[in-house]
User: What shape does this take?
Amino acid sequence: MPQLVRIITRMNLGGPARQIEALTPRLCELGFATTILCGPPIEREGELEAEARAGGAELVRIPELQREVGLGGELRARGALRAALARLRPDLVHTHTAKAGWHGRAAARSLGIPCVHTFHGHLLHGYFGCVRAALYRAIERRASRRCAATIAVSRRVREDLIAARIVEARQCTVIHPGLELERFSIAARAPLFPSETLRLLFVGRLVAVKRPLAFVELVHALLRAGIDVEARVLGDGPLREEMLARSAALGLGERCQLLAPTREPSEHFGRCDVVVGTSVNEGLPLALVEAQASGRLVVATDVGGVREAVEHERTGFLVPAEDPRALLEALRRVARDRESAREIAAAGRTSALLRFAAARSAQEHAALYREILAQGRSS
Assistant: This one.
């Protein structure tokens, strides 16, 4: 059985870690044994260690793989990853997230181990100023030359990476995320729009690129427009206190509740009508796919690979990210015509179940792995 090592900065509740959680047992069935190398968790962020182990993975902590940036720490992280790979001697390495990707690819190449890297998104827009963005591009270009292949989670991510000359077109393939969506079937049975109150949900890390403050402002604008709204925010992050302060300043009170991130978001999906995405940059957000699988309506900004999960007016609603009133107008439309919204949400569920199944994604990953391993044997 080929030995696969995955490297990720943290096995938190974010999209990359949830992808690993979903793929591990499926790839085991397809003949790939998995070991996960990851850094330590961060307080209040949540973690999927137990779920990964239950799926058949061995999980090895790399204490040096920290979120903080510093030359000494980066050198220690790379050295620790190289030592772990030298001990494990896997057939293939697959890296995820920026820091784990940079160091993991370098460590694998130094040992002659073929490596795959997944871009679950990128940091080209919405994260850095000009100088840091240029440095990021330079680092990623160098790291990508160390890869046997790269994976983009959406066509838009692939196009952006090629345009930025980070990857070559022949080197990069698109594999859409896959999830075990059957777990959301109970949420899908919960009624949609059971009352006049419009129940909104925001799911994601509370960081600038996700724009949680824009969600708070949206709730306030809907209330001022005379629409009865209850909103929940499911997540945590550095903007937590600022978001709470802004909600209090607007007098939202219980109208906008902050909830801790959870391993099983399905119960929260079942208690809402609309899941709102406010990001300025996305790869392909799993929360929106899960919302669709739960039979909820998705209203989101048209950024990154969102349109590959949400087709405007057929499986959800997309709005321009640069128009501050667009989300408000879309939700006013939903409030006026809830029957059409129910039909669109139902179409979204059908689409998600067909296109984002874990089994399909695992098969595509396994095919790529086998191709890379076969090339290594023939060279």
Q: What stands out?
A: The chain has two domains: 3-178+357-378, 181-355. The longest helix spans residues 358-378. The mean pLDDT is 93.
